[in-house]
Amino acid sequence: MDKKNKKILIIGHSAKEHALAQKLSAYDNVEKIYVLPGNAAMKEFCECVDIREDRPQEILEFALKNEIDLTIVSSKDAIKSDIADLFQANSQLVFAPAAAASVFALSRSAAKKFMYKLHIPTPKFGIFEKQQLAMDYVKNSQYPILISSDEDSDTCVKAVAGNVDLAKRCVEDLFLSDEKKVVIEDFHNGHEFTLYIITDGYQALPLSVVADYKFLENGNGGLYTSGIGAFAPDYKVSENVIHSIMNDVVFNILQSLEKRGTPYLGILGVECVLKGEDNYSVTGFIPFLKDYDAACVLNSVADNWLTLFEACAVGSFADDYFEIIHSNGASVSCVLSSREDGNEIKGLDLMDDCINVNHFATGRNEYLEWLTNKGRTLVVTATAATLTSAKEKLYENIDVIDFKNKKYRTDICN
Question: Are residues 352 and 393 in contact, defined by beta-carbon separation less than 8 angstroms?
Fold first, then answer.
């Protein structure tokens, strides 16, 4: 694609799409960015399109009508609806994995079975469709264990149980909420991180290694969440571990999918826990970026992201890229949560230049004041020359942001 003024369509509605749109909007060769369906914060520099992200035919018609040059699919609902195959069948350039290639990154049970088949190190697990069988399993488990719903989404239920009674209550709650499958696995205490890679389905290169903070409270206490903080680069993960994950996990998976006729094109996150200096286990996969670490990853790469996406989409990635150029800086992110909807958010106009503020589902009132949404509200990311500087900048700016019952961890990157 050598067109100067490009029109880009991003499919999704949360903080990661906000971060991606921010990054791409700064490029000189981008004429316009559409986000479908987007959120209120994106309207400041994008056009939001009122089409549901799981309506592939409507999205295709929009892309054709508006002469979209590249569509980037980051929403899990959109990936499941198989936009990638539909766009490719209609000669539309798309950066996204096909639904058939993404099953292992969208379903915890599929991921576990896939890793078992490919001999990828992962915690011992069981998959249950009946409550009584799950109850029998937890009686004989070694604790702590992680109990989760099968749908690996940002809102899926996960709980770390330290004893049988708590585990039983978690299992009962999941089946009462009409879960079809429940996944139970050993919980390995250790340093959690995600290695992100980019691939055209054949060649793959590492993008960034991000340290993950998932427990709600300082010191890894409280509820186990989908993620509330991160930093990159993750200095705790050695080059030996990265090399092992690339060879024994990433290329193992890509070769298996290629043999099935379902190559994986896109960004893939490999979630791991460090068990020793060069010893790790894989706990799951992410089919793009996570909301709370998207800005960390995007800021860690010096290469032009749009050019990277285009190279994968047109099939020139293996010829064009032998390595990813990384930036010299470091980033630290923290999620700010609210206990209720509709409270005014103050201080956003006072952020330093080194700060990214990305919104989940905030709204605006008639006075154009930003309002909280219940739960995860903002991701604040600071980028600086060192992790220490980035952490200091992060918390200085978080102090400026003010809303009722603001909740966040204060020990990210300690």
Answer: yes
Q: Do residues 131 and 177 touch, judged by C-beta distance below 8 A?
A: no
Any domain includes 115: no
Task: Give the SS3 label for residue 106.
Answer: helix
Residues 296-319: pLDDT tens digits?
Answer: 999 999 999 999 999 999 999 999
- CATH number of the domain at 367, please: 3.90.600.10
Same domain as 248, residue 138: no
CB crowding 129-159: b at 16 or more within 10 Å, else e: eebeebbebbeebeebbbbbbbbbebeebbb
- What distances in angstroms separate CA 235 from CA 119, 208, 283, 386, one per listed residue? 27, 11, 20, 11
Taking only the tens place, the pLDDT of each residue in 60-90 is 999 999 999 999 999 999 999 999 999 999 9
pLDDT, average across residues 367-395: 96
Instruction: Tell whether the model's pLDDT for residue 193 goes beyond 70.
Output: yes
Domain range enclosing 368: 330-400
Residue 300, domain member (yes or no): yes
The residues pairing with 324 across neighbouring beta strands, listed in sequence order, are none
Q: What pLDDT is attached to residue 154?
A: 57
Length of the chain: 414
Residue 264 scores a pLDDT above 80: yes
The CATH number of residue 250's host domain is: 3.30.470.20
Domain count, the chain: 4
Please provide residue 38's backbone torsions phi and psi, each rounded to the nearest 5 degrees. Answer: 75, -175
Residue 405 lies in a domain: no
Q: State yes or no: pLDDT of 291 exceeds 60.
A: yes
Whole-number pLDDT of residue 155: 59
Q: Is residue 112 part of a domain?
A: no
Q: How many angstroms separate the CA atoms of 144 and 244, rounded?
A: 27
Instruction: Note whether 220 and 264 are same-domain residues.
Output: yes
Q: What is the dihedral of CA 111, 116, 120, 123, to 10 degrees?
A: 80
Please tell me the predicted confidence (pLDDT) of residue 5.
Answer: 87
